Known about the structure:
It is found in: Membrane. The protein is an alpha+beta fold.
Amino acid sequence: MYGAGTTMDRVWVGALVVAALVCVFQAPFTAAQSGAPFDVRIACGSNTESYAPDTGHLWSRDMNYTGGSSGNLTTISRIAPQLNTIRYFELSDGPENCYNVSVPNGQYLIRMYFSFGDKDNSGREPEFEVSIEGTLVYTLNRGWSTVVDDEYADSLAHILDGAATVCFHSSGHGNPVVASIEILQVLDNAYDMGTSFPSTNFILRTVKRVSAGAEKSGYGSSLQADPWGGDRYWATDQTLFTPGSAVSVQTTVSNITKYSNPPNVYPQAIYQSATTTGPTNKLSYTIPVTPNQNYSVWLHFAEIEPDITGPNMRVFSVSANGQPLFPVVDIVKMAGGSLTALVLNATVLVEGRTLTLTFEPLAGTISVNAFEVYQLITREQPTSADNVWALQRMKQNLELPARLGWNGDPCIPQVHAWYGVNCEFEATVGAWFINGLGLDYQGIRGQLGDSIVALQRLQSLNMSNNLLTGVIPDAIGNVSTLTTLDLSYNRLNGSIPASLGQLSKLQELLLNDNQLTGEVPSSLGSFPIRGGMLNLANNDGLCGLGLRSCNNMSHGMKTGIVFAIVGGFIILVLGGYLCWKRRMNMIRGAQRLPRDAPYAKARTTFVRDVQLARNVLANHFSRPAPSYTDTTPLNPH
Ligand SMILES: *[C@@H]1O[C@H](CO)[C@@H](O)[C@H](O)[C@H]1NC(C)=O
Ligand SMILES: *[C@@H]1O[C@H](CO)[C@@H](O)[C@H](O)[C@H]1NC(C)=O
Ligand SMILES: *[C@@H]1O[C@H](CO)[C@@H](O)[C@H](O)[C@H]1NC(C)=O
Ligand SMILES: *[C@@H]1O[C@H](CO)[C@@H](O)[C@H](O)[C@H]1NC(C)=O
Ligand SMILES: *[C@@H]1O[C@H](CO)[C@@H](O)[C@H](O)[C@H]1NC(C)=O
Ligand SMILES: *[C@@H]1O[C@H](CO)[C@@H](O)[C@H](O)[C@H]1NC(C)=O
Ligand SMILES: *[C@@H]1O[C@H](CO)[C@@H](O)[C@H](O)[C@H]1NC(C)=O
Ligand SMILES: *[C@@H]1O[C@H](CO)[C@@H](O)[C@H](O)[C@H]1NC(C)=O
Ligand SMILES: *[C@@H]1O[C@H](CO)[C@@H](O)[C@H](O)[C@H]1NC(C)=O
């Protein structure tokens, strides 16, 4: 359906196509949502914008992604043949990388084209996973690149937070790679599955979308479909049947009524062809699926056979894996006439690896125009917004290395939570909260920052053995759930905030081997008594907590100095007097001695005494200093 590009100016083609779409599609139906749908098409890895030669669609340059490198595509995209680049994410970019694109809230068809080049994966097919809005939707297992439907994967998702987030999760087998992402708005109430399956609770992953009896496969845009349908891809079923099988194709050029009847907005073309059978013949389609999942099945009918003009002339049943979906379908009766579209939907649980749709005649023969099968993927609940904010700020403040990732939602998909982040789900709030951070031994150089106070469920923080600088934020005393705080072996300076004493649940406080100074707040005094583990060793400037009272010590030192000076003075005076006396004696004995010798000796002695005192103190308080380095609970329960 995509012929050779014209030599006309692409912009002109684009304008013409847009104008044509407006003329053709505004007229025949009343859309439930006015105006043009929002759409954004991203040419991954490309730094220029371009227009698709046949559809006139604008493809934006690569934007709103985290990490990654760009490479060249070796296969041609069917959707946009002018695209020739990809984006791929190496492990050094982190295990989670995302596109985050601002869009108005609403329902979207999100389609990706997966392909790989040579530079990105040395020609080997990578295996990885893809999530949409934090919910795991695609697993690209070995062999995906040989299955056309897996290459052009699409899903329907409601965007509720103002941005469409698509994340690529590395499984360690090659670099995740993507060639294009289309985010195309559809009607909010399209694909309403009834009250048992509220559509905002699910992401609908397209398993199969078939236009029965169609000559060839095509996209909505090539079928002159309403753009509110999201440019869906309709595969022909003609390749499924062996020549000579008991099926035939029925087509019409007549107009179909209600083909675009919101919320069911479909291309007219899918109703203008049908696969039919001979009398008494069943018709079956067998579709490979993931077992033990619910599937939403959408069936499209329109009576296009001129001979069938009234009810009861064609009646059949539809079942899925033997379970009846629609026991009695009479197209003319249910649609209200011939050449009129009828859309039926039902949800079915499939236990095995295939879903077989069977149409069985009750009167007359079978006629099927189109069908769609979607896997219902239950959406994961997001992480609480304030917790996300806090971690994003920490990522900045701590200057986390790219290899840690920390992109997308911290807790979901659950199987791809951020490195070092532990989460707990709180059902009453319907959100995930961070209850543990383990970033020990990561070579982190930044600062802790105040934002940690927003982690109101944080129980354990271990950032030992890094190169953290700056102070321990006062705000940490407001994280009242903390039971373990290990900031040992860093380069933290400043004093220990007194607010730590407010943490009544704190069991382990390890601040040893930093450059902390000043007095240990007296609020920590009760800490070992209530059974906590406290280690403050190897902070040269630290003092207090009844072990070595900094103020008293310096006071004592002053006293010592005063005593020493006074003592020295006395010694000097005494010595001088003695000396004088002796000199007098010596003069008397006709001998001379240097005048300043006694003074010099006294001063030397004094300096040595002070040094000695310092050494004694230093030895007494340096590692290991069991007197106040309690690494075993005093009061274990
Ligand atoms: C992609 O192809 C262009 C020219 O076609 C070339 O200049 C560029 O270096 C290639 N990029 C990579 C990553 O191979
Ligand atoms: C994505 O990029 C576009 C263009 O650079 C920008 O206008 C838009 O605000 C960005 N959206 C987000 C969510 O960052
Ligand atoms: C799909 O079927 C359910 C009932 O099973 C119905 O409530 C809903 O309106 C149908 N959706 C559409 C779009 O026709
Ligand atoms: C179908 O409807 C259009 C107007 O919507 C009309 O121009 C055209 O002639 C109709 N085609 C047939 C075969 O009736
Ligand atoms: C399928 O839907 C039923 C409700 O009809 C629900 O009870 C069941 O948990 C769903 N199964 C899965 C795997 O989602
Ligand atoms: C996506 O971008 C928006 C706007 O820039 C931002 O508020 C939001 O946190 C981002 N979401 C993710 C998952 O990164
Ligand atoms: C923090 O991590 C370090 C290094 O992995 C480990 O030795 C230490 O036991 C952890 N601290 C706590 C309180 O578990
Ligand atoms: C911590 O709590 C105290 C008292 O509730 C409050 O005054 C202070 O602003 C809080 N600090 C931060 C950083 O939230
Ligand atoms: C802590 O160290 C930083 C340099 O890493 C310095 O700028 C700051 O003044 C120090 N703060 C204190 C209280 O010593």
